[in-house]
Design brief:
This protein is an alpha/beta fold and 183 residues long. The protein is built from six helices and nine strands.
């Protein structure tokens, strides 16, 4: 999508933090649906952004969150700002139904492409199928770099917010980078 912009961040979790902080600021909705099968740092990021995780289990023998459980929770709960869809591979057979449901309820989809950077659906990057996506780069990911992350979005207000937010962040020093390398 040519309207999508990429904003680079220091880490993937920083990208998620910025997205969630923006959504909380603009929607005032606190809850974020996410999979319990994730790294604990992402749960901490959800909390640090002022939002609260709402865990939905996966379907049996799948990496996909249970669509029916999501649908039932969305029907009852008006305080959901976003759903984080973590892509372990192309695993979301109900993703287009989920996207339609979320659009009708004004819930944003955030795609965690940290370990699925090159995944595609119908010859398009997964990042093209949601309002916000984020990526994570490091020596053990599919985009090998010392450290880094990125937000992909066409939301101009969020892009401005992300750029302004990062102006307040401390830059990595040479010694910080050496520590990351040693770690």
């Amino acid at each position: 999508d040519r309207n999508k912009k990429i904003i680079f961040t220091s880490k993937g979790r920083t990208a998620l933090y910025i997205i969630l902080k923006y959504l909380f600021k603009t929607t005032k909705k606190q809850q974020v649906i996410m999979s319990p099968f994730t790294i604990f740092d992402l749960v901490n990021i959800v909390i640090a952004a002022g939002t609260k995780p709402l865990f939905i289990d996966h379907k049996k023998n799948s990496f996909e969150m249970d669509y029916d459980k999501i649908k039932n929770i969305i029907k009852k709960n008006k305080n959901i700002s976003a759903i984080i869809c973590t892509h372990y591979c192309l695993n979301s057979e109900n993703f287009l139904k989920l996207k339609s449901l979320c659009k009708n309820k004004n819930i944003k989809i955030i795609q965690d492409c940290a370990i699925a950077a090159s995944s595609q659906y119908k010859n398009k990057s997964l990042a093209n199928f949601s309002d916000y996506s984020f990526f994570s780069f490091n020596l053990f990911k599919f985009i090998p770099a010392l450290t880094g992350g990125a937000i992909v979005s066409s939301d101009k207000k969020m892009i401005h917010f992300a750029n302004q937010e990062q102006k307040n962040y401390k830059l990595f020093s040479f010694f910080d980078l050496i520590f990351v390398q040693l770690k």
